[in-house]
Amino acid sequence: MSGKAKVVITDYVWEFLDVETRTLAGLADLVALKTKTPAEFLPEAADADAILNTYAGPITAADMARMPKCKIIARYGIGVDTIDLDAATRAGIIVTNNPTYCIEEVAEHAMALLLACARKTAFYDRLVRAGHWAVPPGKPMFRIAGSTLGLVGFGNIARQVAIRAAAFGMNVLFADPYVKDRQFDVPGKKMDLRDMLRAADFVSLHPPLVPETRKMINDDTLGQMKPTAYLINCARGPVIDTDALVRALDRKTIAGCALDTTDPEPLPDAHPLRGRDNVVINPHAAWYSEQAMVGLQAGAPGEVRRVLSGEWPINVVNRAVKGKNRAGL
């Protein structure tokens, strides 16, 4: 290796690394890996100055202790649930994310899944492919104009869903302990979570995955929903207790669900969520568009370049690390 900094890419999902190479040119040497766990990338990352991370994890305090030179872990995506943030702060490692690259895409995908539930398009497609041409198997169906959407979490993506849902004539409710009623100039009335679940015809999940939200959709919360209501998840799979969801579907506690993210991910071939007429499952695709891919690939390397150049990065997740980090920032 040269006298330049060393940056390890733990994993990536695109074909070329020209963006990373161009962004860090003259400043760092890149080591590009395709790993799934720290045990796989730590042999190369032990002397790294920075880590670029997509999915490989979880990255724990013990892993960080084995990377004594690491100044920044930059996530390509939005969520940081695979990184122990408290441990990173104690170790003086800056953690950044990429919070805006796919807001429109995920909002659009949530609406697509909502419409698939309401109009049963995926069900009818499977029916026709199997050689059947009939409307009655999809009954009953109800128009979404005048129905109620409940949003769990009211961050950037959820607010874009609210705007789109209102354009379809839906009433929008939200539950978020960190957002005040009418704080944003977008459709949506704040409610207590349980009251919102009871009122909603569709429930769309948009919270970050943190200890407080892990398995927040469980037997109790699913039991608050209408038996005619649908659950939509474009957030993180572990927000839902999967076993509880299966029980709710078996008992007809809810009408069905549409999941872009699952727990586990991917689902095993024989999983009880598979093969149900009232379940739509996508392979964690909500984030993707060609435009989003550009923003995804560019964000994290830019943050690494800032830190290695002595600048404070833009999207710091563990802000308490400022003034006590290995980069001296």
In DSSP terms, counting alpha (H) and pi (I) runs of 4 or more, how many helices? 11
Question: Structurally, how many domains make up the residues?
Answer: 2
* Sheet/helix structural class: alpha/beta
How much of the sequence lies in strands comes to 5-15%
Residue ranges: pLDDT <50 for 5 or more in a row?
A: none
Can you name the CATH architecture of the largest domain? Answer: 3-Layer(aba) Sandwich
Cα gyration radius (Å): 22 Å
Helix/strand order: EHEHEHEHEHHEHEEHEHEHEEH
Described by the principal axes of the CA atoms, the overall outline is elongated
Largest beta-sheet details: 7 strands, parallel
Mean pLDDT: 97
- In the CATH hierarchy, what is the superfamily of the largest domain? NAD(P)-binding Rossmann-like Domain
CATH topology tier name of the largest domain: Rossmann fold
CATH class category name of the largest domain: Alpha Beta
Distance from first to last alpha carbon = 26 Å
Number of strands: 12
Description of the structure:
The protein is α/β, with parallel strands linked by helices. Strands 8-7-6-9-10-11-12 form a seven-stranded parallel beta sheet, sandwiched between helices. It has a five-stranded parallel beta sheet with strand order 2-1-3-4-5, with helices on both faces. It folds into two domains: 129 residues, 3-Layer(aba) Sandwich (Rossmann fold); 179 residues, Rossmann fold. 40% of the residues are buried. The protein is 32% helix and 15% strand. The chain contains eleven helices and twelve strands. α5 crosses α7.
